[in-house]
Amino acid sequence: MAFLHRLSKASSVAGARLIRRLSNVPENTVYGGPKPQTSNQRTTLNQLRQKYKKGEPITVVTAYDYPSAVHLDTAGIDICLVGDSASMVVHGHDTTLPISLDEMLVHCRAVARGATRPLLVGDLPFGTYETSTSQAVDTAVRVLKEGGMDAIKLEGGSPSRITAAKAIVEAGIAVIGHVGLTPQAISVLGGFRPQGRNVASAVKVVETAMALQEVGCFSVVLECVPAPVAAAATSALQIPTIGIGAGPFCSGQKMIVTSLRPPIGLMNEFVSCHRREKLRFMQYQVLVYHDLLGMLQHPHHAKVTPKFCKQYAQVGDVINKALLEYKEEVTNGTFPGPSHTPYKMNPKDENAFTKELQKMGLDAAASAATEAAAELEKTNTQQ
Amino acid sequence: MAFLTKLSKTSSLTRACLSRCMSHVPENTVYSGPTPQTHDQRVTLNQLKQKYKKGEPITVVTAYDYPSAVHLDIAGIDICLVGDSASMVVHGHDTTLPISLEEMLVHCRAVARGAKRPLLVGDLPFGTYETSTSQAVDTAVKVLKEGAMDAIKLEGGSPARITAAKAIVEAGIAVIGHVGLTPQAISVLGGFRPQGKNVSSAIKVVETAMALQEVGCFSVVLECVPAPVAAAATSALQIPTIGIGAGPFCSGQVLVYHDLLGMLQHPHHAKVTPKFCKQYARVGDVINKALSEYKEEVSNGSFPGPSHSPYKMNGSDVDGFYKELEKMGLNKAASAATAAAEKMSTAQGPVAEKSQK
To answer: What NCBIfam families does the entry give (chain B) (predicted)?
Structure first.
C-alpha cells in the first residue's frame, strides 16, 4: 500500500514512467497503436445502401497491411478492399495468380487490426473458388472467420461463378461481384485487356452484372470497360457499381441536360429519369493503394502506372529522398547524433565498467568506452 | 512470312502495341518491375568486410515487401533486413512475438523479388529456434531455401543461443548475432527496456558479442545500449557491429523502415516513434493528404476525368450496344449508354479517336 501511496504522490510523469517500466502490456508498449474513442463505428451495408439511395459518394481503396489500413481509416475511406492485387504490388509478381488463400488471410488479418471503421472486403484469390460451389463457400467462410473481413469479392460472370456467388450469399456472407476485365482470367483474356469494346462483350457485361445482382450481390465492380458500358450497367442495376478504369459516369440530371434530343418513344423514360434522385446512376470508384500514391514512381525506374489511375502523391520519391538522406548521414557519421543517443550510464557505472574490461584484458575496449563517454559528454554540453 | 514482313515495316510504336496486345508474358505486363542491367551485383560478405576494414559505415534498413525492397535497392542500402519487426509495423501487433515462420517466409520472398543488390538477411522469429539446436538449423535452412535470403539473424547471447548460432554457421549459413535489448525476450526483460545500463549487464553485452563472433557470426546487432557499451563492444570485436539506439560508435546503423519514414505519423493519431529513431520523412502525412484528395475528387465527381477514362467504343459499336439493350427491354440503360458516350466524346474532342488502340 505504501508503495502505491508513494506512487500516487510522485509526479504524474514519473508515475507514468514507472508504470511503463513495470509491464509490457499493450497500452504501455511503444506500438500500442491508435485506438478509436468509440467502438462499433464500423461502416455497415445499410449505411452504404443509404448513401447510394441519397446519392452520396462512396470511396473504396485497397489496403494490404496494418499501416495502410490505418491510413484508410484516418482518411475516412468507406470500404477497405484487401485485394488479390497484393500479389503484384506487395509480392512483386506479374499477375494476381500466385497468391494463396493463406497469404490473403494474413493480409486480411493485418488490415482488420488497422481499420476499425471502413467496411472490410476480402478478395477470393485465384484457384480457391472455381473448382466447385462448396469450395467457394468454404473459402468465403474462411475469409470472414479467419480473415476478420465483413464481406468478400469474387471475379467473373460465368454461370458457375454466379451459382457460387448465390451459395455464398445463402451462407450469409455479403458478396461484391466483379465483371469486365477480371485479372484472374488473363490466361483466357490474353492479357490485361479492357473488355466490353464490342457489342457482344458490352452486352455480356451488363447481363452478368444483372445476374450477380439477381443472386444477391450488394455491389458490382466494373473494371476496364468503356464509359458507356459502365453507364448502362450502372443504370440497369439497383445496387451500386464500383468502377476502376470504367469512366466517370454522370448523374441522371446532368445527362439529360447534355444529351441529344431523344427519340419520341423514349420521352417517358427521360421524364422519369429527371425526377429520380441524382445518384441512382452514380458509380463509385476504387483504386489500388500503391498506384494512387505513386509508391513505385522513381525517375530512374519509372514503373508503369495503369493509365486510368491518377497519382495523388509521389510517395516513392519521398521515400527515396529519405533513404538517401539516411544513408548519407550514416556514412558521414552525423546519425545518430546526441538527440538520437538517449541511453546513458551514470559515471560511477562507467568507471566500474572500464575497470571490468581491463580486468578481462580488453584494454582497447576499455579506452574506447572511456573515449565514447567523453565525446558524448562534450557534444551534449556543446548543445 | 508476309505477316512478319508487314510487321517489320510498321512503326516501332505500333509493333510495341501489337506485341503487348498479343501476350501477357512478364515483359509485356504492367507490373514487370525494374530489372537491373547487370546481374550478380549482389552485395557480398566480402564487400562488407572490406567496408568494415576501411572504416566505411554500413547501412542497414528493414523491408517487408516488394516495394520497400525496391526502394532500398534504388537507394543503395547495403543490407536489407527482413525483420520480425514486421509483426508490429506490418501486422499491427504490440510485440514481435506473434509472427510465424510461414509469415516471415512470405515477407522474405517478396523482398527477394524486389531487392537485387543489397545483402538479404532474414530474422528467425520467436519460437522457431529456441527449442533445440536442430530446430534452429531447420529454421535457418528454410529461411534460405524457401525465403531466398542470403543470411539469417537470431537474438540472444545465452549459451543455448550461442550453440545454435554455431550449428547454423556450421551448416553453411551466415549468421548475424543480436545482443542488448532483444525484443523477443520482453517477457523476461519486462518490456522494451534498454540494456547494459549497469556494470554486469554492460559486461554481459560485450561478452556475448564476443562469444557470437567466436562461433562464426559475421556481424552483431547492438540494440538499445548506452553508447560507451556499444563502443567497447565494437572495439573488442573484429567483425562489424550494427547499432540501433546504441549511439554513433558502431560499424553501421540499422533502422526500421516505417519508423525512419514516419509512415504512421499523423497529427491526429501520433504514433510513438522510438526516441533513437530519426524521421527522415513524414510519409504518413503525404499519404493522408493524397487519400483525402482522392476522396474529395471522387466525391465531387472530378475523378476520373477524361484523361483517366481511356477505354473507348467506336460509334457503330455504341449504336449496336444501344439497340441490343433496347431489345432486352433495358431502355433506361440504353439511354444511359448513349448519353455517356456523348459526354465522353465532347469532353475529349478529336483526341478520343487517336487514343483508340
So the answer is: panB, PRK00311.1
